[in-house]
Amino acid sequence: MAVVGLAALLASGCESGTPIGRDAARRVLIVSMPGVSWTDVRTGHLPTLAALSQGSGIADLAIRIGRQRTTSTAAYLTIGAGTRAVAPAVERAVALDPDETYEGVRAAQILQRRLGMVPTGSAYLAVGAAQDRNEQSSFGAEPGRLGDALARASVGRAVIANADAAEAFESDEPTPDGAYARSAMTALMGSDGVVPGGTVGRELLRADPTAPYGRSLDPSAVLEAFDAAWSAPGRSVVLVETSDLSRAAGYSLRSTVDQGRKLRESALGTSDQLLGDLLERTDPERDAVLVVSPVAAPGAPDLTIAVLRAPGLDGGLLRSATTRRAGYVQLADVAPTVLALLGEDPPVDMEGRAFEMSAAGGDRVKRLVDESAAAEFRDRLIPVVVPGVIAVLALLVLATVIVWRRRPRYLPAMRDAALCALGVVPASFLLGRVGSLVDRMALYLLALVALAVAIGAVAAALDRRRPGAGALVGTGSIVALVCIDVLAGAPLQLNSVFGYSVAVAGRFAGIGNLAFSLFGSAAIVVAALLIDRYGRRALPWVVGLLAGVVMIEGLPMLGADIGGVVSMVPAFGVTALVLSARRVRVVDAVLLGVATALAVVGFAFIDAAGPAGSQTHLARLAEHLQAGRIESLTDTLHRRLQASFGEAELAAWALIVLLIISVGTYAVLRVNGWLDRLAVPWTRGQPTVAAGAGLALLALIGLVANDSSIAVPSTMLIVIVPVLLVRAIASVDRSVHLDMRTG
């Protein structure tokens, strides 16, 4: 019965979609509309796009590449690599047709020097710099992977785009580098930097005194170039950028707010008309149309649009194995999607995964607009809630020390306050999906405090009836809530304070880094409290609890958090060993390291055994192991360390600072005798030592294994500090009762 129940729970957390590409398309049209969101569609500025969305798959496109906002060049390089990419430092958006000039020199001469040939199509000047920069980056992208894959499959490629921002095109003087904005061609270029079809030259532009920079796309020139590329024999992929939207975004810095809005609305209108003209030239029965927005408008969340119309697909919400959540896809998913639409297998080492279609009813556009607003609200909450919680904990510790020394009779009130502070964690998750609180900061904070106090009051009432139960209930509620949430598909993680924001694009399903730190630390504390309360007879249940938490954290269809597993297995192992009154030996440390590796590999092969459309990043680990690509594993580890700390020197300093803080904290606790007081009630199986060792190891490994850096151990304090206060106050109460008995 336990196995059957576990299987049912595991299945409840799985979400899958219909793979695309079952009816392979002959041609794929990619329309890039920079800076467009679903809010623009809902406001009526894009009637053609709105009509296309009705019978197509739609989703929010997460465009964030790192911690910084995505630039056009980085976005298009990401599309072309199928993996998150970064832009080179110079000539980042310079692409040329062979008959143009650049800085007063004929492009053919420059291309001959740079590429060793003069291509028949357009060429990206910074292809070498882009490859070098990405080879050294934390993502390891290979620019031009999509173009190379299409070339091997004998699929034609063409790009028609020009977002140049120069006002003096006819001048004989060299045009500045920043005036070029032609990075769209990098989406379909090969590793040689060349796109054989289309054009990115200035013949696509016309003089327009009312447009930004005095130039706009010439629809007739764009359509003429498109017709030539679209009518070529055989299979083909053609990308057309509605470049006027990019010019309007760039010009907003030079215009008034009202004028900038008018210019953007005008660009939206002309872009929508161009989209309509392009759609008229496609055959819905044989051609696929993919509309994406690679960058967000200035000041908007990093969530844009993705619309897919393809043969054999009905309308719904798009998803991918990368996001595992209906309504969300990532920029890196575009490349494997294009290949899948043509019936081609994407390269296995691409980070992205092909789109899938999930059935959805109701107003899908409204749903995406609302969730984007919730993500934006969550990102505004973080700078308010997290510092607020930290400040409350600091004040609570200070107040407890003062009361401890001067007014001991008020310590029970401080205990209740600590339990209320612990209630902030489950309260924040529960409020994360309350749509009526979005964009109501004051109301949200009031609701958060009220719910946290209610949870703390319940824990305090239980603690008064059964001393010690309050901390167990407070931390146990965190563990139980995260478990139930993840088994149900993690709805409470989405856009909650300690969950993840879809606008940040780090994670869309499973357990995020902050939730991992709360989940793992609460599990260790619960384990110690259970042994303290029930003795060694509770050890089998404690071990089962810790093992279950690891399963929830690591299973690919649930938490899928490889960094969490790497941190939890050794930390939980040390905790269990100390709780069982065993000394941790060198051989135990080796065995825990082996167990960690086996757990990671096991989860990876479980993921690889599933359908290709549902595989996550864990499956790529199994693929690397099967193929013997050990260097890929070391590169992944290096990129994770780099994402956490940046350069190696910064990582070393971070570890030194953490060590100093740890030693200083220990010294303060030891000098004041607080460690002795805390150890008074925790004598059976050394729960204090077990919890301390497990938490320290979880913080140290979590600092390295997760890409949130110092945020992981810092978030753990939200669980640890209230529990320490409750236990310290309980030790005082016991000392007082003992003195009264003996006194």
Structural description of this entry:
It contains 26 helices and 18 strands. The strands form four sheets. Strands 1, 2, 3, 8, 10, 13, 14, 15, 16, 17 and 18 form an eleven-stranded mixed β-sheet that branches. It has a three-stranded antiparallel β-sheet with strand order 4-7-9, with no helix packed on it. The C terminus is likely disordered. 55% of the residues lie in helices and 9% in strands. By secondary structure, the chain is an alpha/beta fold.
Low-confidence stretches: 7-14, 167-177, 644-650, 678-685, 735-743
Overall spatial form: elongated
Straight-line distance between termini: 55 Å
Please give the count of helices. 26
- Strand portion: 5-15%
| Global mean pLDDT | 81
The major sheet is characterized as: 11 strands, mixed
Q: Could you give the count of β-strands? A: 18
What class, by secondary structure content?
Answer: alpha/beta
Could you estimate the helical fraction of the residues in percent?
A: 40-55%
| Structural Rg | 29 Å
